[in-house]
Specification:
CATH architecture: Beta Barrel
Shape: globular
Largest sheet: 22 strands, antiparallel, barrel
Structural class: mainly beta
Helix content: under 10%
Strand content: over 45%
Number of domains: 1
Number of helices: 5
CATH superfamily: TonB-dependent receptor, beta-barrel domain
Distance between the termini: 34 Å
CATH class: Mainly Beta
Length: 627
């Protein structure tokens, strides 16, 4: 109701007929090219969430962690605004989620995880989230799920320019400029961005006597980056593409309440990928080259650099209308130049996927993968997924789906070689997981909806934990964790008169309980893992009427325990964000959009992690110009 009222008021306060958005007597619609990620057809049985143009546009300039926290059922562990942010997918650890950019794995091989505050939403065109163990499809780290960022070339579009800017509370400035050009054979898309935030918000300091209200003084964040996408159609059957991404972040590390630390950190990330695709009859060949470099400098002195070199090849074919297959190999050379060690490592992966149909309504996918690390075989990882469309009518259909998989995570370079403390004898973490769900889609007149409910169960064994020794900490394989839960989602669209309404709702219930731990003699058995909320939910409502649109986003995160003894917890919190947008044209050559939004509308005092302050109510003005 709030969303509808905002849009209704806007249409009267700023009268501007919708017809002015259309020139002449006809409406020219641009050609839309729809492309699926190559792996999606082999993800049958899994829950996959696609974040499209609307979600990406609403979070332009912000970190990917903000988008995932507010628009999905995933809980993001944020160490403060703009600070380190990692995922908790289905109750797994930060390193149990694989991250890909244009098909290239970009998790740090030294840390084994991704800091999602370093991934800017405006650097990609599409974001897809696959929930659940998918090691057979993607390799190491994909125990809890995987995140896929991608660029999508569009040909024959001519010149396009887009300028985005945002200004908000606490010294927030976000700026991005884009230019693209394409004809029938060539595509180029350039994006440059500069973002900064002083993060000098007031907060109640629980680390001092009397909990005085203070203003944060050491938490500024500066980022800048450049993304260049290129593609060529070489003849009728061959395409060459290349993408380059440079990102730099300079930030003051927000201190824990009561602390006076003044740490700073610089992160420089270079990513490049090139693909050669050739289409011949019913076969597609793909050769991929890639390079990823991560350079982290702590307190302007300690530098840790990792480099990854990739070469991969695969062939995908269609034997019959109901039978598809894909086989490939990827070779990765890793170089780690860390402050306490130097290490080179070779990884070879062989994989095969097979898509099949059983009758008219059942289809399935088998995925197989074998990785070899420096000549040593890691666990073989198979998976099986099935989907059964058991009720299919023109206005209503139901699909039952399920998947089972074996997954693994190779110990990180730091786990094995950090000096002192590294343990080169660590075994890969491994898991067995299964899930099942039902998807309902329907349409009645102008009302469309899709609902999905999934149940999953997972057992993670040989979980690596760092423990104190006589002189230093060292990692060991000692923990077993049992994860299970329910994920549900609902999305709908409805049109009436001049209104367009939409709603998206997500809810997840997670149990991540310690099933075995050799260190504490069973004292934590049955307890929830630290910083894993049982409940996480969000809802998004939007209303559009002519050139006006409004939206409201509600996020709820339940209580989280601080330690494995479950004796101390961080309280639940809820956030309401809302905004209104106005779109108009300028002399038939530019489309402009002005937006005003309020974040944390009720000024709630909350923490995502204990003693890490988060900002209260804040405001933001956004403007986008398309030429």
């Amino acid at each position: 109701m709030v969303v509808i009222v905002l849009a209704w008021l806007g249409s009267f306060l700023f009268p501007h007929p919708a017809e002015q958005l259309v020139h002449g007597d006809t409406l020219d619609l641009e050609t839309v090219e729809v492309r699926a990620f190559p792996w999606e057809k082999y993800s049958l049985g899994y829950k996959v969430n696609t974040l499209g143009e609307e979600e990406i546009g609403a979070f332009q300039g912000q970190a990917l962690s903000e988008l995932l926290q507010r628009r999905t059922g995933i809980f993001v562990r944020e160490y403060g605004a703009g600070m380190l942010a990692t995922l908790n997918m289905r109750g797994t650890a930060a390193g149990h989620n694989a991250v890909f950019w244009n098909g290239l794995p970009i998790n740090s091989p030294s840390l084994g995880q991704m800091d999602f505050s370093l991934l800017t939403v405006g650097s990609c065109d599409a974001i897809r989230v696959q929930y659940g163990g998918s090691g057979a499809l993607f390799g190491t780290d994909a125990i809890g799920g995987s995140i896929h960022l991608g660029s999508q070339p569009s040909f024959a579009q001519g010149h396009k320019v887009k300028v985005r800017a945002a200004h908000g509370s606490f010294g927030l400035w976000q700026n991005q400029v884009e230019h693209s050009y394409s004809n029938q054979k060539f595509f180029s898309h350039t994006r440059a961005y500069i973002n900064r935030s002083a993060n000098n918000f007031p907060y109640r300091n629980l680390g001092k006597a009397g909990t005085p209200v203070e203003r944060q003084e050491h938490a500024s964040v500066h980022t800048r980056g450049l993304v260049q996408d290129l593609a060529w159609n070489v003849g009728a059957n061959t395409q060459v593409s290349s993408s380059f991404w440079y990102h730099f972040t300079d930030r003051e590390i927000l201190p824990v309440m009561g602390s006076n630390t003044r740490d700073v950190q610089e992160d420089a990330n270079v990513r490049w990928v090139a693909d050669l695709r050739h289409f011949r009859d019913q076969v597609q060949y793909n050769l991929k080259l890639g390079y990823v470099e991560d350079d982290q400098v702590f307190n302007l002195s300690t530098s840790n650099i990792t480099r990854q070199y990739f070469i991969g090849a695969e062939a995908e074919w269609q034997a019959t209308e109901k039978m598809h297959g894909k086989s490939g190999a990827r070779l990765t050379h890793i170089v780690g130049e860390l402050s306490t060690y130097y290490k080179e490592e070779q990884r070879l992966e062989l994989y095969h996927s097979h898509l099949f149909h059983l009758g008219k309504s059942i289809e399935g996918a088998i995925n197989l993968r074998q990785m070899v690390v420096d000549g040593e075989f890691v666990p073989f990882t198979p998976s099986l997924g099935l989907e059964w469309g058991f009720f299919d009518k023109e206005t209503h259909n139901l699909t039952l789906k399920g998947a089972a998989s074996k997954n693994f995570k190779v110990p990180t370079l730091n786990d094995r070689f950090w000096s002192p403390g590294g343990n080169p004898d660590l075994l890969p973490e491994k898991s067995l997981s299964a899930e099942m769900g039902v998807v309902q889609k329907g349409k009645r007149g102008a009302f469309n909806w899709e609902a999905e409910v999934n149940y999953y169960h997972m057992l993670v064994d040989q979980w690596i934990v760092w423990l104190p020794g006589e002189s230093f900490w060292t990692p060991v394989n000692i923990r077993k964790v049992r994860n299970q839960g329910i994920e549900s989602s609902f999305s709908s669209e409805f049109s009436f008169s001049k209104w367009d309404l939409s709603a998206d709702i997500n809810y997840s219930y997670v149990q991540a309980r310690i099933a075995g731990d050799q260190e504490d003699a069973g004292r934590s058995i049955g307890n929830q893992l630290p910083y894993t909320p049982f409940h996480k939910g969000n809802s998004y409502l939007s209303a559009k009427r002519g050139p006006f649109s409004s939206w409201a986003n509600y996020t709820f995160v339940g209580d989280r325990y601080v330690g494995t003894d479950n004796s101390t917890q961080v309280n639940a919190f809820a956030l309401l964000d809302a905004g209104i947008n106005y779109t108009w044209t300028m002399k038939a050559f530019a489309t402009c959009r002005l937006g005003i939004q309020v974040n944390n509308f009720f000024d709630n005092d909350y923490q995502v992690l204990r003693l890490r302050p988060m900002p209260g109510r804040n405001y933001q003005i956004n403007i986008t110009i398309d030429l």
